[in-house]
Amino acid sequence: xxxxxxxxxxxxxxxxxxxxxxxxxxxxxxxxxxxxxxxxxxxxxxxxxxxxxxxxxxxxxxxxxxxxxxxxxxxxxxxxxxxxxxxxxxxxxxxxxxxxxxxxxxxxxxxxxxxxxxxxxxxxxxxxxxxxxxxxxxxxxxxxxxxxxxxxxxxxxxxxxxxxxxxxxxxxxxxxxxxxxxxxxxxxxxxxxxxxxxxxxxxxxxxxxxxxxxxxxxxxxxxxxxxxxxxxxxxxxxxxxxxxxxxxxxxxxxxxxxxxxxxxxxxxxxxxxxxxxxxx
Length: 280
Prior knowledge:
By secondary structure, the chain is mainly α. Helix 3 (58-85) packs across helix 4 and helix 4 packs antiparallel against helix 6 (178-218). Among the domains are: 87-218, no CATH class; 221-270. It has eight helices and no strands.
């Protein structure tokens, strides 16, 4: 309650302090700056500053141009120094970019070649598939004919015709029966669907195998294994050539030693080995 009672006195003290500061400002500058700025700001319009530099004289213009040339020369020198410093890094980046571009081009060429070859193989496979379907259709027809002939002969208890081995001709009325025709067509359709499903699954497995092998070829571990295998093959070739050279040298040395021993033995037993002395 005491604080609330002293609040008007605090406000009066703040007003007196602000009035004293205002009078001090007017005494320093001789005029009320705040009132003057408020009066003149309403009449002044904001203008866009000029884009061209203000050059009061030709000397300042020359100084400005000299400063500009100096800055350009310093920038060119800094750029040249930076280019010299990062020269090897730039070459490495250019070489890496060139290698990447060559790799991408080779990948696209391989994809195009695979697509062309796959199109040719697909056409060839379609032709072979059509021929195989025709052949299978003929075989199924023959098997169905044999089956229906056997069943008909069993129903008629015709063992003599069954043992004779002669087939019923296609012009017979049996093959013009609607039941036989529907059975043959239905069996052919089911066999064809099963074969198409089987061939489609085989093609999917082959394509998955090719894609997996291609990704494995691109793997770093596979490349390292290939390089290691090439190194081992090269080491084996070097060892094989060295062994062959050593073996050939040993054989020659053994032949020389054997010829020397043989000459000593003949000389000891008095056998003439010189052809000139033998001619005399």
